[in-house]
Amino acid sequence: MANITVHINGVAQTLDVEPRLLLVHLIRENLSLTGTHIGCDTSSCGACTVLMDGRSVKSCTVYAVQANGKEIMTIEGLAQGGLHPLQEGFKEEHGLQCGFCTPGMIMRCVDLLERNPNPTEDEIRWGISGNLCRCTGYNNIVKAVEYAAKKMQGAEVPAAETVA
Ligand code: FES
Ligand code: FES
How far is the CA of 97 from the centre of ligand 1 (A)? Predict the structure, then answer.
């Protein structure tokens, strides 16, 4: 067993883990944060995407021990006193369909907008190309990211309900 400390959604968690344990299993099974999903186990779908030190990673491709000392953010940590602009965008632009791929898609887009605050449609489509949505054709997801980009730059966008 390996003793690791992971800062997850701002809270330090110290655990003993098997060296072979994947980060996605640490998140879901040891920490009960089930917003991060497992869609393929072959690093194809992106449903397991979380932020590690601010960068998106597919948590089914990372060992839990590699997260030792790192800051991990999951979808549960994103809304701070209200919806994140990306969560608002998915709501307002109907980017959310099944909900299975959405947490990973949103976490990927947090990283995308951090690196490129004003992406073109092509840049958004390229940026989310590692995340599979099997039902929407991506158009509303692209609109949701455009919504969030405008909102994060202070532009006027329709108001969304806040989290109760
Ligand atoms: S479960 Fe990780 S990429 Fe699909
Ligand atoms: S909205 Fe999740 S797979 Fe399409």
Answer: 18
Q: What does the pLDDT look like over 36-55, one tens digit per residue?
A: 999 997 899 999 999 999 99
pTM of the complete model beyond 0.85: yes
Which numbered atom of ligand 1 lies nearest the CA of 41? 1
CATH homologous superfamily of 85-153 equals [2Fe-2S]-binding domain (1.10.150.120)
Enumerate the CATH 3.10.20.30 domain ranges in the chain, comma separated: 2-77
Q: Which residues contact 21 (CB under 8 A, 6 or more apart)?
A: 30, 63, 64, 65
Cα 57 to middle of ligand 1, angstroms: 10
Percent of the chain past pLDDT 90, that is, above it, reads 84
Tens of pLDDT, residue by residue over 96-134, are 878 889 999 999 999 999 999 999 999 999 999 999 998
**Domain range 2-77, CATH architecture:** Roll (3.10)
The number of the ligand nearest the C-alpha atom of 40 reads 1
Residues of the chain with CATH 1.10.150.120: 85-153
CA–CA gap between residue 93 and residue 124 (Å, rounded): 15
Q: CA-CA distance, 125 to 109, in Å (whole number)?
A: 11
Ligand nearest to the CA of 94: 2
